[in-house]
Amino acid sequence: MAGISAALTLQANKKSFLIFGSAELSDKISKAEKIHNYPGFSDVSGKELVSALKSQLLDANIAVVEEKVTGVYALKEKFTLLTDTGKQYEARTVILATGVESIRLIEGEEAFSGRGVSYCATCDGFLYKGKTIAVVCTSKRLEHEIGYLADFAEKVYLIPMYKNVEIERDNIIKIQKMPKSIAGGLRVNRLIFSTTPMEGIPAELPVDGVFMLRESVSPAVLVGGLNVVDGHVQVDRNMATNLVGCYAAGDCTGRPYQYAKAAGEGNMAAHSVSAYLK
Amino acid sequence: MAGISAALTLQANKKSFLIFGSAELSDKISKAEKIHNYPGFSDVSGKELVSALKSQLLDANIAVVEEKVTGVYALKEKFTLLTDTGKQYEARTVILATGVESIRLIEGEEAFSGRGVSYCATCDGFLYKGKTIAVVCTSKRLEHEIGYLADFAEKVYLIPMYKNVEIERDNIIKIQKMPKSIAGGLRVNRLIFSTTPMEGIPAELPVDGVFMLRESVSPAVLVGGLNVVDGHVQVDRNMATNLVGCYAAGDCTGRPYQYAKAAGEGNMAAHSVSAYLK
To answer: Mutating which of A267, A272, A273, A274 best tests the B interface, going by the most B Cβ atoms within 10 A?
Structure first.
């Protein structure tokens, strides 16, 4: 919602921009049964709100770029963005509107990020050719990334955090339990499930790497040097982060996780960006 | 918009509250020809958005109390509110969502506030029995207050800042020019229009008092001790002002004056109030 709001206002301000995400817009909104307190809509369903937002973007000639941003690098007065397609983009400013994942970071995840923990199948998949990896996946929409990884790895432990898992491969072993922690030495070497073995679930598994496939990469991992406290990007009243030219809006900046707040912050961030570009 | 958003969220949070304003909700929104960047509505007219908000309030069983708050007094852990009907209300917390008046303060207005400058006809009208007053009025909806004042005062100089002035009285003299400043000694004694006399407009007028009839009273005048900079209530990310228990949201907290921002801030303020009341 924050990203859409920012995009609508940037378009109104005649700024040149790209919005990255899914053409389906927001899983979170779509799944909402009824929304009561978003001003202007009485008892709207999440699906109806998403449909209204879709037609608004269409009317405003805004097309969502369906790529997942996997890294944002702050360079001198510009940013370089990498996406899961391997493409590279440059921008003078960035608005982070990543939302929050309902799944917390796993213990050890941040510590081993870049040392066996990866967020991008297409970026790092080839590193695990013939190896054993674990894949924690939060959304059915990301199943193609699991398939991509299974093409390289010899063995894939899949921990799906969504229903109706469809992917089937000889080298994919499904585990219906969230790991407790990621452990290792210099690099990841195992995934720990339990200190007391449970039926059908191993206490731990030896792995060479762990892929965390989420709809969005957490801001702390996405942007190096970003000030993130308790999983929330720190912003001021203008939605500016600690990095010059980098703004954030919506759930990723903190509670309440509400549509109206996200819309308001996206609007504010777009105005701040417009002012910054002058 | 900020007040409506706050009310919807307070209702969802099962808080007991009153929302003061007009059943017509917002003149500002109503007058908007087209709104493009409020998420969820593509090319909506202001009238359509107001109508959607009205039915949402109706569905949520929220009725606007049609009184104008003329003073907010912070007492020990509670607030006392006075309205233009002479009624008094008590509240543990207050959310200011006054909007911003498009008309600036007149020079001398703040300095003479309480010393001849008044914002409330029903509160202070009787003080001017048999006297000469000026009335600056920004909205046709406030014409009844002019009539109320004309019942007391001997002479009323009316400076209407709206079209289609209807009120006619023998003791009302209309002047179609905004005064430059309010002047006096211990108390107001004159209204200054120009240093160089213009045809049909006096350079200055002797007056015993000046009534500023606006849709809402400016926050600085409304709440004593409130931190207001350049006409904007200073708030933190939680929409808290410098006064404990007093929050603010929407245009009154600063630019951009946008519906989405106002909706977001109202939502945030309501959440902060709910947390504060715990």
So the answer is: A267
Residue of A18, A70, A26, A77 lying closest to A47 (CA atoms): A26
pLDDT digits (tens, 9 = 90+) for B173-231: 999 888 999 999 999 999 999 877 677 778 899 999 999 998 777 888 889 899 999 88
**Residue of B28, B29, B41, B42 for testing the chain A interface, max A β-carbons within 10 Å:** B42
User: Would you call B37 and A4 a contact, using CB atoms and an 8 Å cutoff?
Assistant: no
Q: Nearest CA to B124 among B96, B143, B152, B102?
A: B152
Query: ipTM of the assembly?
Result: 0.77
Contact A112, A136 (CB under 8 A): no
Residue labelled with tokens 């709910």: B274
Which residues of chain B have a CB within 8 Å of the CB of A12? 36-37
User: Is B106 in contact with B214 (CB distance < 8 Å)?
Assistant: no
DSSP code per residue over A145-187:
HHHHHHHH-SEEEEEE-SSS-----TTEEE--S--SEEEESSS
d(CA A245, CA A268): 14
- Closest CA relative to residue B115, chosen from B225, B221, B223, B194: B221
Convert the pLDDT of each residue in A108-122 to its tens digit.
988 898 899 998 888
Q: Which of A1, A256, A258 sits opposite B39 (nearest CB)?
A: A1
Rounded to whole angstroms, how far apart are CA atoms A6 and A15? 11
What is the distance between the alpha carbons of residues A244 and B185, in angstroms, rounded to a whole number?
50
Asked if residue B277 lies in contact with residue B243, where contact means CB atoms within 8 angstroms, the answer is no
Question: What is the separation of C-alpha B40 from the centre of its chain, rounded to a whole number of angstroms?
Answer: 29
At A102, is the secondary structure helix, strand, or coil? coil
Give me the percent of chain B exceeding a pLDDT of 70.
98
Nearest Cα residue to A192 out of A202, A135, A119, A132: A202
What's the pLDDT band for A194 if we cut at 50, 70, 90? confident
Q: Which domains does chain B have, with CATH numbers?
A: 2-101+217-277 (3.50.50.60), 117-213 (3.50.50.60)
Distance CA A63, CA B136 (A): 49
Question: Which residue, chain included where needed, has tokens 């907010």?
Answer: B72
Task: Say if the Cβ atoms of A41 and B56 lie within 8 Å.
Answer: yes
Nearest to A112 by CA among A189, A175, A213: A189
CA distance A77 to chain B (A): 25
Comparing B196 with B250, the larger pLDDT belongs to B250
Residues of A with CB under 8 A from a CB of B: 1, 4-5, 8-9, 11-12, 36-43, 49, 52-53, 55-56, 59-60, 235-237, 254-256, 258, 260-268, 271
